[in-house]
Each structure stands twice: as C-alpha cells, then as structure tokens.
Write a structure and sequence with these properties.
By secondary structure, the protein is of the alpha+beta class. It has one domain: Mannose-Binding Protein A, Chain A (Roll). The chain is globular and about 35 Å long.
C-alpha cells in the first residue's frame, strides 16, 4: 500500500515538473495591481502574501507591459499615479537592487535628474505630468503611499 502511494506521488511530481518545463515566459508573466496604496515595505508583504513579488522591470518590454497594466486601471486619470517597483538602494545608497533576485539595476527609465537620493531609497513608477513624470522612474521615501504592482515569477508557472 505504501509503495503504491509512493509511486503515485512520484508520478504526480513528474507530471507537475513536465508541465512547468513547457511553460513559456509569456504565459507565466502577469501583473496584479493592489486596490489600495501602501508604503514600499507593505507593498512587498502584500505581493508575497499573494505568492507574487513586486515587479522587476529589467527591460523595455517589461516597462511597457507594466505601463499598460497601470493604464488599464484608469487611476492615472486623476493626474497622479504611482506604483512601487521591486528595487531599492536600502542596503547600499545609490546602488539599486531588485530585491527578489539580488541583481543590480542595469535597465532604467528614470526621469532626467533621478534618482535624487537623500531620504529616497525605494523605486517607483510615476505618472505625474504636472511634474514631468510620464511613466518614468523615481526614487521616493519608502513610507510614501503608492500602489503595489505585483508579478508572477517568470521562472515559475502558475495554473
């Protein structure tokens, strides 16, 4: 009896592994925007509770996908909208790192003159035309209340 249960469990593990191997990043990557604003640390926790992570925007295609997801909410119609992204320079000032991977930022869509530093250590994406932020990046104090944009891990597949 125990032997049969072990065989069934091994077979199920193989099936799950095979399904994950055949997932494409396009089908695995998706975004979720929180329905309420929070500080950066709360945003990290929010995404983690959902089994997700704050978005990593490490190329132009991902930046455009995040902007499209943000625009789909319609929240930018107020003239100000901000999203927390998954990087900060909390560990070493002026060295931004994606927290879930430990990789340094290579790609960036910073507004000219940003990051400014000081007490601003957490990365966000702003739409704030009055201050010339047109879906560009900014460093802000981590206790600022903005929306979290969470993503699935592109290396995992969720069904």
């Amino acid at each position: 009896m125990i032997r049969n249960v072990c065989i069934v469990l091994q077979f199920c593990a193989l099936l799950i592994g095979a399904q994950q191997l055949h997932c494409s990043p396009q089908s695995a990557q998706s975004y979720h925007i929180a329905m309420y604003p929070s500080n950066w640390h709360e945003a990290v926790e929010y995404c983690n509770r959902l089994g997700l992570r704050l978005a990593i925007v490490d190329n132009a295609a991902k930046h455009e996908a995040v902007v499209q997801a943000a625009q789909a909410t319609g929240l930018q119609s107020s003239g100000f909208f901000g999203l927390w992204l998954g990087a900060s320079d909390l560990a070493r000032t002026k060295t931004y790192v994606w927290h879930s991977t430990g990789e340094r930022l290579v790609f960036g869509k910073w507004k000219p003159g940003e990051p400014t530093g000081g007490n601003e250590h957490c990365l966000n994406l702003y739409y704030w035309p009055a201050l010339a932020f047109n879906w560009t990046w900014n460093d802000a104090p981590c206790d600022t209340n903005l929306y979290a944009i969470c993503e699935t891990d592109e290396n995992r597949c969720f069904r």
